[in-house]
Structure formats: C-alpha cells, structure tokens
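One example given next:
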Amino acid sequence: MLEDPAFPFRVPPVDEEGAAEWRSRLFEIPRSSVVRLLVMLATKEMNVPRHIGFPERRDGMERHAAAILSRFPEGSAFFTNTRHGGENPDFYERVSGCWPMSQYSWDFGLLAVSDEEVGLIWSFDAS
C-alpha cells in the first residue's frame, strides 16, 4: 500500500474512454447541499439519522462545514460520487449507494473545484 501513491484511491485512467467512465461516477451538486454533505461525511457510518447526539451537535457541525465551504467562492463547482436525491440532495437523509472511487467497496466524498484550488474530502469504509 505504501508503494501506491494514490492509495486508497484507485489510479484514474489516462485513456479517454476510461476517463469518461471515471467522470461518470461523479455528480454535480448545488452549493446549497454542500454543508449537509460535509456534516454527513463526519458522522458515523455516514448516516445522519443514526448519529448519536446529532440534534445537540448539529449547529457546531454545520458551522465547521460552513467554514470549509467558505474556502470555495461563489462559482465553484461541487461533485460527489452518489446520485442522491436529485437536483437538491438532502444528505441528512440516509444515503444508500455510491460509486466507489477507492480500493474499498464503499467510499463517499466531496470534490470541490474553484479557480484557485481543488478540495477532496472523503470518507472510507475500510472494514
């Protein structure tokens, strides 16, 4: 594993067909869904409804997520590897599927892209 510089991610393909397939696993989400996605990524089992103590911790978790989001100005693009909830996904609802981008059978994350930087925030089930 240490020899693989992409670990735990799979190495993206370099051919056009493979790159198109890789891109097809990412879905653009609106800025309005990003805070909830970041909060979900910080919960156990990536399942907000089952996260113990969430109602008491919600405000603080949302403030931390908003601080991360603030790094990316209006006009940034956001992607995730699940097609959850259509055009305005609510990541406080249980997410039941993803297209893994890693060597694990389940992973879930956010790819944030601005003119200045790229952010990759990911959670893995390495069980």
About this structure: The first strand starts at residue 27 and ends at 29. The helical segments are 16-23, 34-41, 54-69. The longest helix spans residues 54-69. The radius of gyration is 15 Å.
